Amino acid sequence: MSLLNSTVSPENATGVVAENYERVKEILGLVPSTCEVMSINPFIQTRSLDYIDTIISHPTLSGKLFATIRLLVSNDSNCKFCVDFNEAMLMNAFNVSFDEISSMKENPSFAPLNEKEKALLLFVIKSTKDSLSTTSDDITLLKNKGCSELEIYDATYHGANMVAGDIMINAFQIS
Fold first, then answer.
1. Do the Cβ atoms of 125 and 68 come closer than 8 Å?
2. Which of 5, 16, 17, 86 has the fewest CB atoms lying closer than 10 Å?
3. Quick check: 25 pLDDT over 90?
4. Band of the pLDDT at 89, cuts 50, 70, 90?
5. pLDDT digits (tens, 9 = 90+) for 123-150
6. Half-sphere exposure (CA, 13 Å, Cβ side) for 62?
7. Is 20 exposed, middle or buried (0-12, 13-18, 19+ CB in 10 A)?
């Protein structure tokens, strides 16, 4: 499951960790191993779940966009756990076919998103691959596609957050 051993299992959880496990079960129906590893630091676990709540209830960007960001960023980061998890989410929750997923992994511009969200996705992929490559022209293009600065920020933060998550999952060999 992980290189770290001092985690709290769902059946032994108490206090904040038990509350966090209930929160994640409401969303996913189970406690994934990533959440269990985060039990080592309940503060970070809680903050991560708070962030997930924010993304799930985003006022203008779709869950499909956020799952696609996670999939493609994790694909670039070689995080098999996250790739598999987000492929399943895209197929089961958003009716994206395996062929569509394969195509977008080869070329993110094939992502089955509307024009605005596809532009955001491509910007996020660009910024997570090389954060120094972005320009004011990129932001202008996004604004011309109808993106607000909040949406640009939130989508890019999500991609950057995924890079950090992939590093943690890979470093501790969470499965």
1. no
2. 5
3. yes
4. very high
5. 999 999 999 999 999 999 999 999 999 9
6. 15
7. buried
Residue 1 has pLDDT above 90, yes or no: no
Query: Counting every residue, how long is the chain?
Result: 175
Token pair in block for residue 87: 């492929």
Per the prediction, the chain carries an average pLDDT of 97
Lookup: tokens for 91: 């197929």
User: What is the token pair recorded at 113?
Assistant: 């998103």
* pLDDT tens per residue across span 142-175: 999 999 999 999 999 999 999 999 999 999 999 9
The two tokens of residue 114 are 């509307």
Element (H, E) at 92: helix 80-94
Domain ranges of the chain: 10-56, 63-171
Could you tell me which CATH number the domain at 63-171 has? 1.20.1290.10
List all residues 6 or more positions away from 43 whose beta carbon is below 8 Å from its beta carbon. Answer: none
